[in-house]
Amino acid sequence: MLNVPSQSFPAASSQQRVSSSGRSKVPLKPGRSLMDWIRLAKSGKDLTGLRGKLIDVTEEELASHNKRDDCWICIRGLVYNVSAYMEYHPGGEQELMRAAGADGTDLFDQVHRWVNYESMLKECLVGRMAVKPSTGSKDSSSTKGQKQLVIGVPVAEEREPSSKDITPRYDWFQTDTTITIVVYTKQKDLTSECVVADLIDGALRLEVVLGELSYLMHLRLSQDVQEHLSIQTSSGVGKVEVSMKKVSSHKWQELGEPLDSHNSLLKQNVSGIFFRKCTLVSKTPVTHDTKLLRFQLPNGTRFMVPVGNHVYLKSLVKGSEIIKPYTPVFMTLMPEHQDSTASKDTDIFLMIKIYPDGAFTSYIESLQIGATLYISNPGGQFRTSRIQDITDLYLLAAGTGFTPMAKLIRYALKNLAALRKIKLIFFNRREGDILWLDQLQHLALEDKRFEVEYVLSEPSAEWKGKRGRIETSLLSNVMSRSNNSKCFVCVCGPTRFTEQALGMLQQLGYCEEEIHAFQG
């Protein structure tokens, strides 16, 4: 995909530059507020110009849409027509135009990577960047002289050979009953969460996430294997082993035929989004309008979703393909109550609020047990390395913004040696909207390091807890900070909530390195 040249963003003269008093915004015309944009997006008006169709966009096609009234922007491999959004953008038109007709991922991340652009611009989605031919790395056993198809630009492309080459290598061996592939990554902190494997119709797709890069193997296997596969990682030596069972005991002469992007090292933001068809196996009420859905990955798929990461759901709804991000949770907040039939690498649990006028969530609600939809690889910016030595963890969540906090709470209590306190400040409208209320109460009683503070904007007369909405004074009262503490704050909720929270945290003296905002 196209890359925008490195530059200061926003520009020094831009009204969106951050100053000591916070990020100033461009005054918007009357009728161009966030709520006005939401109303326009829900009006049914065609904001893409494609009448609901999703297309594969080439670099040339993207580059041609670079004008104020015809502006396409690519963010993380997805292309949006933001022409209609120009007048609603708080940072002004000129900031959007900096990425017109180009990949704006890096620029977007510099300014507001926390913004839930998938939700904000979902009605502007044109499609995804197309696969482009490129001379990627070769498989030493069977690809000599062939060219690979690479989604985006291989990091290793046109790079001089070096003894310090970071590209992983792989080998394979066999017995009468098994085929084993070994990938040597040179990454010492490799974990099972870094590996995504799909064995579908005789094609193996293995992706290993290495920081900001992804190594991809993609082969049509030369002979049949059983659907199930197993994965082992050795963090000390950075090794991944994938084992498959042969259908017959015949000796393989070669591993297989290379497919798109095989043996490539790619930047994650250009590696594309891969989906597989998953099956709904259970649906459990959480509140009056929120369900916990359990999806089972295909037999040949194995992956785990890292803490704070999301997946995309994709399905065809009323003739239109809809793609939407959700953050998986565990089956329960309490590990001892986990269903023994649930596996970390074969099941995905999603807590989804059903909106009566929401096309996608209404479709989700209508799904029967056994129905299928497509789920992507995990993705996200959060890394647990940022919180390894903290003492105090504060979580600001509104509504289903609680979902990334659920896994984070369990991870922190189990793995952070210096942790003294986790405090969840949970904002909702009414008491009946609080997700996993009983489990949160139980956890607070069981582990003294965990505290939860509920804040309701429309409480009943009997409510004895805090009332109102997010305010600087409220955060100041509930987020104590001692001289010898090392704090970290996570925020997730609707865009407006997150925006307000970040401004308030800045006023309270928290710096950028101490804050992470999840996509709401």
TrEMBL record:
Residues 273-385 form the FAD-binding FR-type domain. Residues 165-256 form the CS domain. It is an enzyme of class 1 (oxidoreductase). Its EC number is 1.6.2.2. GO terms for cellular component: endoplasmic reticulum. It is found in: Endoplasmic reticulum. It catalyses: 2 Fe(III)-[cytochrome b5] + NADH = 2 Fe(II)-[cytochrome b5] + NAD(+) + H(+). Its cofactor is FAD. Residues 1-24 have a biased composition (Low complexity). InterPro entries: Cbr1-like_FAD-bd_dom, CS_dom, Cyt_B5-like_heme/steroid-bd, Cyt_B5-like_heme/steroid_sf, Cyt_B5_heme-BS, Cytochrome_b5/Flavoprotein_Rdt, FAD-bd_FR_type, FNR_nucleotide-bd. Residues 54-130 form the Cytochrome b5 heme-binding domain. One of its GO terms (molecular function) is cytochrome-b5 reductase activity, acting on NADH. Residues 1-28 are annotated as: Disordered. Pfam families: CS (PF04969), Cyt-b5 (PF00173), FAD_binding_6 (PF00970), NAD_binding_1 (PF00175). Keywords: Endoplasmic reticulum, FAD, Flavoprotein, Heme, Iron, Metal-binding, NAD, Oxidoreductase. Belongs to the flavoprotein pyridine nucleotide cytochrome reductase family. This is Cytochrome b5 reductase 4. It comes from Lepisosteus oculatus (Spotted gar).
